[in-house]
Design goal:
Number of helices: 6
Helix content: 25-40%
Strand order of the largest sheet: 2-1-3-4
Bound molecules: zinc ion
């Protein structure tokens, strides 16, 4: 089974970057963790997720990967290398908002649901069934692909 992550509240940008790559990254809201960081750890363990954090107090726990860098790009790189995730990278497959897996949608079905210009110029579409956000392959993805080749 693919590695899944629980991402600490101070690493919101990292959570988003991982989702961009199609990697399962659940994000912890500050209010949950502020109460008790160990509860976050417990939840990671129970749900078979690796807890990504920069909290040095949690460094020694086996279900934790301590994130060294402050830069999202270097953080992603550390994770990809640590877990050997190069082959797991599947951009355009996960919702950036809610971490849900995207479902591909036929072009005919997105008519009126995405901006007209996008409808006219794109062919591949996907949708998040949870928040109903639509995704398409665009410039953003092209830039991302270039970035991915660096990992
Ligand atoms: Zn969503």
């Amino acid at each position: 089974m693919a590695v899944r992550f629980l991402v600490d509240f101070m690493l919101g940008k990292l959570a988003r970057e991982l989702r961009v790559l199609g990697i399962d990254a659940l994000y912890i809201e500050k209010k949950d963790l502020a109460a008790n960081p160990l509860s976050a750890l417990k939840s990671a363990k129970q749900t078979d997720r690796i807890f990504l954090t920069r909290n040095t107090k949690l460094k020694a726990y086996p279900e934790v990967l301590f994130i060294r860098s402050e830069k999202a790009e270097e953080q992603v790189s550390q994770i990809i290398k640590h877990f050997n995730l190069q082959k797991e990278i599947k951009p355009f497959t996960r919702c950036l908002r809610c971490n849900q897996k995207l479902v591909s949608v036929a072009k005919d079905d997105v008519k009126g649901k995405v901006p007209f210009y996008i409808f006219q110029t794109k062919d591949k579409f996907a949708c998040c069934l949870k928040c109903e956000k639509y995704y398409w392959e665009g410039t953003h993805l092209k830039n991302m692909r270039q970035k991915i080749t660096k990992y």
